[in-house]
Amino acid sequence: MRKTLLLGLLAALAVTPVPAAMADTAPAAGEPATVTADALPTWQTDGVVLAMEIVNGVTYVGGNFDNVRPPGVPKGGAGEVSRVGLAAFDAATGDLLPWNPVAFSPTFTDDQAQNECDKIATNQYRCDTVFEIKASPDGSKIYVGGDFNKIDSSRRDRIAAFDTATGALDPDFNPVVNNRVRALAVSDTTVYAGGHFTTVDGETRTRLAAFDPSGTLTSWAPTADKRVLAMALTPAGNRLIVGGDFDRINNIKQHGLSAVNVSDGSKGTFNSNDIPANSSSSRSWVTDIVSDGTRMYASANGEGTFDGRLAFNPDNGSRIWINNCLGATQAISVMGGVLYSGSHAHRCNMQSYYGGDAFPETKPHRRYIAEPTGTAQGAKQTILHWFPNSAPGTVYPYVQGPWTMANDGTYLWAGGDFLEVNDVAQQGLTRWTFHETSPDVGGPIQAGFGAPTLQANGGGKVTIRWGATWDLDNRKVSYEVLRNDGQVACTAESFSVFWSLPNLSCQDIGRTPGASHTYRVRAIDPYNNRVSSPTSAPVTVS
């Protein structure tokens, strides 16, 4: 798969051509850069983050949590403060902001609720989770949806609105929705909702509904036969793309992903049939939908079938490209020509990576993936070199890792049910940015980067061999081999990734026979971040 280029300062080594570069944090000219994989300091939650929206420099998050705490602090530690289901953070610094509404519901006893609601004690449940947050186009309001029936002391049945300037709950926006609101989309004139509900304000609305900005239910009333989990307006604003686990829209057969006209609620043309329908052995459902202003993108979760991402034409639903990586994709976010996703990807070798295939079945699963948005119609989709990771949490039914992502063009945020990011304790929230904004300080990751082995070859030559390491966000890693006198003996470089770590070597020449030397290898990323191997055993020069 991956070829390796070795450069010896003092030895003539074979050279193998390297495929053309693709995007990472130091891409070739004209190619999009990814954000770094090194997580920035960010406050944490004590539970699951399921919703996220960035507006006016503020990251609003919602989910199933009761407290938040500073970065680096363990659960229950110093600085932890109450935030119940909703919280806000500075998008650039990651710091907590004062906004502090409480999403609330009473406790109840119901064994059937355990798959949907928060178990707080033996046979005791509470449905207060926030599943969705969306901002108005002008940024003056955010709308939240979920399971709650109160915000602070005010009755709000599963949907509410807040003024972003003051943080206050909108006193007028107060529809009564009889079941979970899971998805929202907002235009200048209309708030669209989707979910599990069947009535709104006492009127029949089968999993889809619309309101004017004051909260008045409109006559728009398309139907979905099963749950709606995601929605987004097309760039033209004339169609609402809906995703979920449904089989029919307006009683017209189309599983998982479809379009509804905003003018009258009629089903719109949608030519893609890439989301497999339910069967005895497999099914897929759409989890997220985003747009970059030209194309639209959807992610899916599947059982024995489609788990990846696809790009489609917003005007007719025709597929542009598809990524068939296995490992349920729960969230996507598009920024700078790159589609970022949160999943538990465990096999991507049906996709390409720098001229070869992407990773085969692997553990641990990769929780974040990046890919270019601009792939041509029908072309094989490529995985980019961006591989941060997170350890999944333990909150059933949310065990997955990332569940939501959002960006403001500079900072990419992710939230979910995770306890670590890049092997460092961090619960519920994380974020990244570009190298130009915050330098990559992580350096090459030590992946099997042990001490080198040595061989005296006669004539004053010593061959140094070692296994390559790899970097989370740059495919190129350079190496300096340091002799025990502190001098650079020889150098090499490789293009490495976690599923293909080459064995490298170079020669130190001109050594004095009978002298004893030790060596260590220093790995260097394109931004001069460095990490060293242990020191080798000594060798006697022959």
Task: Please provide a brief summary of the model.
This protein is mostly beta strands. Helices cover 0% and strands 42% of the residues. The strands form 17 sheets. A 4-stranded antiparallel sheet has the order 21-22-25-26, with no helix packed on it.
Structural account:
The structure is a single chain. The protein is 0% helix and 42% strand. The chain has no helices and 50 strands. It has a 4-stranded antiparallel beta sheet, with no helix packed on it. The chain has a 4-stranded antiparallel beta sheet with strand order 27-28-29-30, with no helix packed on it. The radius of gyration is 26 Å and the shape is elongated.
Class per helix and strand makeup: mainly beta
Strand order of the largest sheet: 21-22-25-26
Arithmetic mean of pLDDT = 91
Question: Spans of 5+ residues with little confidence (pLDDT < 50)?
Answer: 1-21
| N→C terminal distance | 37 Å
